[in-house]
TrEMBL record, chains A, B:
Swiss-Prot/TrEMBL keywords: Annexin, Calcium, Calcium/phospholipid-binding, Metal-binding, Repeat
Residue numbers binding Ca(2+) 2: 255
Gene3D superfamilies: Annexin
Designated name of the protein: Annexin
Protein residues bound to Ca(2+) 1: 26, 28, 68, 259, 299-300
UniProt xrefs under InterPro entries: Annexin, Annexin_repeat, Annexin_repeat_CS, Annexin_sf, AnnexinD_plant
Domain of life: Eukaryota
Gene Ontology annotations for the cellular component aspect, listed alphabetically: cytoplasm; plasma membrane
Similarity section: Belongs to the annexin family.
Length: 317, 317
């Protein structure tokens, strides 16, 4: 479901490194070459290029890109070139350091829209990069209404197959509804439903919710809970229920209205280009009656636009 | 720190399989040969032997041992031959199914006396063996006073290096003491201290506790909290503070008095023979003024005695 286009035959990591070196050396930088190379390699290939570049030139490719590029284009290229696990660990740290509850949503995305193995890898990387566990930092930096749900969501290691018990789903739909109505979504039993059940089981529970209460659980959260806790809970539910819907919404919100929220736009595209971008594009088209690529073209420009288009598989460089 | 003695030169997995096949075939079983082979191979070597045996004879070595052997000897050989991760996942399942709160201690041992990577591997194995997460089964089977601490302890992924903040240790010693006095050890902030901090940090907090309150935290737990919750908490604290002390105590308790608790004796020796049995033996001698091997010899007999002695490095087969 990835959207990047990998050339055939694929140049070797050494050839790619040499081409990248040419692109960043001397006066001026060849941004298009950088996009053509890095924007068309998957995570494993990018990691091999970083290693080969380091060996060949005794410098870090990431550091070099950081010093040669600027603005939103630099952010997109750096985030994309980073190993996805390291990138997510760093994004989690940035979000926690910012003390901005809105930015905590990225932790929910990492916890609820990743595979169990990716989430564990991020927790491991977090420990080795920052000398403490991700959970310790959440407890230190996040405020009480968000803290508990976040700690449990990032600590999850869900069963990753479609084992569904309809009776349990019905019971838990009711438990969720009662907690939402009582504004008691931080009770242990609610947090455990959201953080220990497999995603297929939870999706069934959310569907039971819609059937029994004639309103979707995210709508109900929106009506009953307010502020940043609502958006944290709703994000968790959306990321579990349908990550493609969630990320289509993130992209749409970053673009609509005056001005663009480049950080959110970059994050969503970089995080999902190799995961489910094809489905996000379909979802986007269906929900907003416009092509994702057209919205990106309308709201961005220059090299930044080009790298985003490359990542969603719509560039013509 | 392991106590098993691996022969040099090491026979190949095929040679070991052939010798094991001879030991289990025909009338009568050669138990000594089984001990001499499996009791002197590490986990990786045992796993290769299982593979080679399966390939050579189209049968599972574990199944064959299960049908040829009996009693405590069988249990010890089977538990030892199992991959340690699978063994721990199965022990966790058995403990949860038993509905006996005393048996939940094995979950605490797995959560608090293992490395973060081993614990994650056990959670992964649990999912694939039992089609649900370990946490889901804890919530289903364990009663409320144990449930919350257990879910958090097994979900931990602690930073695994000696980063200690003395001020935090002091503050958290006080928080722990207050919670113990108020019998409120299931409050979120207490559970988080015990389940998210690195072990070096927690050991410092436990030492601060002793200094400030002139009583060790385990003594205080014993005096203030009663029943199975006390023993769960005390086990968690001991496994974090000094696993060798904990397992020396488990072995001693399984032996002292009339009769022997073979299940606990086997579990402690099998779980720790490749981890820290050398230190457990030293701790045992110091605490009880008797050699662990002498206590094992005094309380067990036959092949069961011999396999235990092999695992603690004291056999003369």
């Amino acid at each position: 479901m990835a959207t990047i286009t990998i050339p055939e035959p694929l140049p070797s990591p050494v050839e790619d490194s040499e081409a990248l070196r040419k692109a960043v050396q001397g006066w001026g930088t060849d941004e298009k070459a950088i996009i053509r190379i890095l924007g068309r390699r998957n995570a494993t290939q990018r990691s091999k290029i970083c290693e080969a570049y380091q060996q060949l030139y005794q410098e870090s490719l990431l550091d070099r890109l950081d010093s040669e590029l600027s603005g939103d284009f630099r952010n997109a290229v750096i985030q994309w070139t980073l190993d996805p696990v390291q990138r997510d660990a760093k994004m989690a740290k940035e979000a926690l350091k910012s003390k901005d509850p809105k930015r905590l949503l990225v932790l929910v995305e990492i916890a609820c829209a990743s595979t169990p193995d990716h989430l564990i890898a991020v927790r491991r990387a977090y420990c080795s990069l920052f000398k403490c566990s991700l959970e310790e930092d959440i407890i230190l930096h996040a405020e009480p209404p968000f803290r508990k749900l976040l700690v449990s969501l990032v600590s999850a290691f869900r069963f990753d197959e479609a084992e569904v018990d309809e009776a349990v789903a019905q019971k838990e739909a009711t438990a969720l509804q009662e907690a939402i109505k009582r504004n008691a979504t931080d009770e242990d039993h609610v947090v455990w439903i959201l953080s220990t059940r497999n995603k297929f089981q939870l999706r069934t529970a959310f569907e039971c919710y819609s059937k029994i209460y004639e309103i979707s659980i995210d709508e109900d959260v929106k009506n009953s809970i307010s502020g940043d806790l609502e958006s944290l809970l709703a994000t968790a539910i959306r990321c579990i229920h349908s990550p493609e819907k969630h990320f289509a919404q993130v992209i749409r919100k970053s673009i609509e209205g005056l001005g663009t929220d480049e950080d959110s736009l970059t994050r969503a595209i970089v995080m999902r280009a190799e995961v489910d971008m094809q489905r996000i594009k379909e979802e986007y088209q269906e929900a907003y009656k416009v092509k994702l690529a057209d919205d990106v073209i309308g709201d961005t420009s220059g090299d930044y636009k080009d790298i985003l288009l490359a990542l969603i598989g719509e560039d013509n460089l």
